[in-house]
Amino acid sequence: MEFNKIEALLGKYFEGETSIAEENELKNYFSSPNTAPHLEQYKPLFGYFAEAKNENFEKVIPLISKKKKTAWLLAAASIAVLLGAGTYAYFNADKEKVNNELGTYENPKEAFEATQKALAMLSNNVNAGVEGMQYIQVYEVTKDKVFLD
After folding, report:
1. Does 96 score more than 70 pLDDT?
2. Would the pTM of this model clear 0.85, i.e. be above it?
3. CB–CB of 42/10 below 8 Å?
4. Is 30 in contact with 46 (CB distance < 8 Å)?
5. What is the pLDDT of residues 23-63, one digit of tens each?
6. Distance, CA of 49 to CA of 55 (rounded, Å)
7. How far does Cα 2 stand from its chain's mean position?
8. What is the gyration radius of the CA atoms in the chain, in angstroms?
9. Which residues contact 46 (CB under 8 A, 6 or more apart)?
């Protein structure tokens, strides 16, 4: 009858449904010498726990002072923060000056002249792009003549 109980506990154990007391009962059963022959295959599984209790880690671990590493790390982090803040301030100082120069005009005549100047520059750039497109059109016509479909 005890074999049936142990087999039922094994089934629960492999399903992950056993309590701590039931697992201790399985450990005790498999550590005893009177284990059923058909359950001998599970003996190493539960015998591992008894062996693991006796294991000790005996290697000496040298203690390394972390203060030196921490000091260097803090110094490197401080330098990185200072460089980042300095770079940000250097590049954004020019942007503030440019943003102050660009803006609204007090005199409508000055605003009109500035707008005409900007539109003329835009027109010149658009015209240069259109001239480039003419070369592409000539290329397309020549390509169609050479490579007949």
Report:
1. no
2. no
3. yes
4. yes
5. 888 888 887 778 888 888 888 777 776 677 777 878 887 77
6. 10
7. 54
8. 42
9. 26, 27, 29, 30, 31
